[in-house]
Amino acid sequence: MPVFAWEGRTRAGETRRGTMEGADEAFVLSRLRAEGVTPNKVTQQAKKTGWNMDIQIGTGVTEQDLVIFTRQFATMIDAGLPLVQCLDILSTQTDNKRFGKVLTDVKNHVEGGGTFSEALRRHPKIFDELYCNLVQAGEIGGILDTILNRLGTYIEKNVKLKRQLKGAMVYPASVLVIAAGVIAILLWKVIPVFEKMFKDFRAGALPAPTRIVVKISNGFLGAAPFIFGGALVFAVTFVWAIRQPRGKYVWHSFLLKLPIMGPVLRKIVVARFTRTLGTLLSSGVPILDSMEITAKTAGNVVVQKALMAVRERISQGDSVAGPLMETKVFPPMVVQMIGVGEQTGAMDTMLSKIADFYEDEVDVAIAAMTSLIEPIMIVFLGGVVGGMIVAMYLPIFEIAGAINEH
To answer: Could you tell me the pTM of the whole model?
Structure first.
């Protein structure tokens, strides 16, 4: 990402300078104004020439790095250490050098008179909108250590949900890929050997299952370039399609409606929604801002669209529970509990309880889904592969029988 050098004045008239990463000059200008700086000059720095072996994929900062930083930072703040000193200690002791550079930049910005939340917003790929808004709420309310502890808990639970989601989707997909690979190897390498052997033995008329498998193998060998080419074209087209707004919406909607996996994904969606919204509300973030941030971090376009529609209704004076029920995305029990929390003025507490319940439900649902899918996959793989092998051995049994008769 390009790096821009900037110079500007604060509201107090102080001249400040620094560097900032951004997609373009307009992004840097808007970010500076949001931080209360009137920019006088913004110039893009020249790219470094020559060999650069510091190759970076993504941000180079894992969620585990973020959890450790958040927990340690909260402990230091609670112990009464100054903010800049905390950042200085954490930037030097972290094992992740990329993260250390980011924390050094945050420290320098705070030393220059900026707030902690403003400094974090300079690195949006590492500290997302939810993180920055919660930190800002903690700064305003004087409860930064409490907010950071909540953030650490939230990130840990979010990582667990992501891991469970990947496990739920990767397992059946990996079994299907292995099955396809095994079948392709049998059709490509194994069955032609058996076919040649039968011809050498002059086995005569082959059994019907054997003839079918041999024909499939011959057809596979003849059409292999077209099959693999078609599969590649399909994969590229599919990936491109689900990255388009309409395609992503259709795909996410399809996932939520799947027979076995759909209910599990819905539970994960509910757990993430309630945990995120509950954390934001309990930290003092306004409801409209909380709904917008929750929508952006939902991880599902269908849910995001539903939550943005709910936010619009809330801005017009409606309650939360009514519009949520109309979306038909969330279970009625969840909506009713949110409604009760809204009426009693303890919606953040109710959301946390719902999140705890559904996180436990996700554990149970994924275990049940795995135990259900595993035998289905084994029967499918064993039936196809075993059927092909039996079909190839039938002529051998007949040849052996004929030899015994003579």
So the answer is: 0.65
